[in-house]
Design goal:
The protein is α/β, with parallel strands linked by helices and 308 residues long. It is built from 11 helices and 14 strands. The N terminus is likely disordered.
Length: 308
C-alpha cells in the first residue's frame, strides 16, 4: 500500500502495521491501550503515530479530557482504513487459513448491560477452552451501532435490536418474553399478580435508549395499560439490589429474571397483560461474510448462546 508524504509528490512505503496502529489508536483513544491491544510497546506505537502524521500532514489526534480526540482527517481515514484492514486480513485468512487455537485476533462486541450479564460469561468460557489466545472486547450498545458495524469498529452486536434488521446480517439466538421480578417477601396474591395490582404497583424502569423497556411501555400503552413508574435507572445491573427487600416491581426478560433470582431473595411473576415475545439475535455486517475468522466465531456464538 502506498501513501504520499506530506509536501511531496514521491510515494512513501506504507507499512500495513501503520494501519493496524491507526485503527487501534482511533478505537481506544489511547496510545497506551493501542499498544496493549497490539502486543507492542508504547514507544513503537508512538513512533507509528508520528510516521502517520508525517505521511498525512495532519496531527490526526489531539489530547482531550476523554483521551485522544481524532481530527477531521482522522475521522475520514478511519472509515477507509478500517474497512481496508478488514478486507486485507480477510484475504490473508483465506490464503493462510484461520486457526482458532493459535489466533490472537481481536473481536469487538456490543451489547446492553443486561446482555453483558447474560452473554459474556458463557462466551468467554467457551472461547477460553477452544481459542485461548483470542482477544475479545465488549462495549456498551450505543446509537452509533449501525455505523460501527459498517465501518468495522464493531464485529458483532447482540440483543433485541429490531432497528438493525435492515442494516445487517443476523441469526436468531432464541426467543424471549417479559416477566415481573419482585422481592421474595412481596405479598403475591394466590394465582399471581392481577391487572389492577400490576397497574398500582411501584415500578422501576430502565431509561437507557437501547433498553427494551421502551417496547414494554409501547405494548402496554396499546392495550390501554399505564404503569405507576416511580423510578428510572440507567442500567439493568442495579435492579436486583433495588428490588430485593422492597415493594418495587420490574419487568425483565425471563432468562435474566431467573439469573437474578437464582442467588437473591427474589421471585418471578407473570405479567397480567398479554405482551408479544421478542427475538434475541446476533448481528454482523455483510462485508464480514467472507472472513473465515468471522464465520467461525459466528458459529460459536450461535451454538453457545442458543442453548441458554
Amino acid at each position: 500500500m502506498k501513501a504520499m508524504s506530506a509536501g511531496s509528490d514521491a510515494p512513501a512505503h506504507f507499512d500495513l502495521n501503520l494501519v493496524r496502529a491507526f485503527v487501534a489508536i482511533y478505537e481506544t483513544r489511547s496510545v497506551t491501550q493501542a499498544a496493549e491491544r497490539l502486543g507492542l510497546t508504547q514507544p513503537t506505537v508512538s513512533h507509528a503515530l508520528s510516521r502517520l502524521r508525517d505521511l498525512y500532514g495532519d496531527r490526526l489526534f489531539a489530547r482531550g479530557a476523554q483521551g485522544l480526540t481524532p481530527s477531521v482527517v482522522a475521522e475520514r481515514l478511519y472509515e477507509q482504513l478500517n474497512v481496508a484492514l478488514s478486507t486485507i486480513e480477510g484475504t490473508l485468512e483465506g490464503r493462510q487459513g484461520f486457526d482458532a487455537a493459535t489466533s490472537s485476533r481481536r473481536f469487538r462486541f456490543a451489547t446492553s448491560d443486561i446482555g453483558a450479564l447474560f452473554f459474556i460469561p458463557p462466551v468467554l468460557r467457551r472461547l477460553q477452552s477452544i481459542a485461548p489466545r483470542l482477544q475479545t472486547e465488549f462495549v456498551q450498545l450505543s446509537e452509533t451501532v449501525v455505523n460501527d458495524l459498517a465501518t468495522g469498529a464493531l464485529d458483532f452486536a447482540l440483543g433485541n435490536l429490531p432497528n438493525l434488521h435492515e442494516h445487517s446480517r443476523e441469526a436468531l439466538l432464541f426467543t424471549e418474553r417479559y416477566v415481573c421480578l419482585l422481592s421474595g417477601d412481596y405479598p403475591l396474591p394466590r394465582g399471581g399478580l392481577r391487572l389492577e395490582e400490576f397497574v398500582r404497583a411501584r415500578h422501576v424502569m430502565v431509561s437507557s435508549p437501547v433498553s427494551g423497556h421502551a417496547l414494554i411501555e409501547s405494548a402496554l400503552s396499546q392495550r390501554g395499560v399505564r404503569r405507576n413508574v416511580v423510578a428510572l435507572v440507567p442500567q439493568f445491573s442495579v435492579l436486583p439490589s433495588l428490588v430485593e427487600g422492597s415493594d418495587l416491581v420490574v419487568a425483565l426478560p425471563e432468562r435474566v429474571a431467573r439469573l437474578f433470582a437464582k442467588d437473591r431473595r427474589l421471585q418471578i411473576a407473570e405479567i397480567p397483560v398479554a405482551l408479544p415475545g421478542f427475538e434475541v439475535r446476533v448481528h454482523w455486517h455483510a462485508r464480514s461474510e467472507s472472513s473465515a475468522a468471522h464465520r467461525w466465531l459466528r458459529d460459536e456464538l450461535i451454538q453457545t448462546l442458543s442453548k441458554l
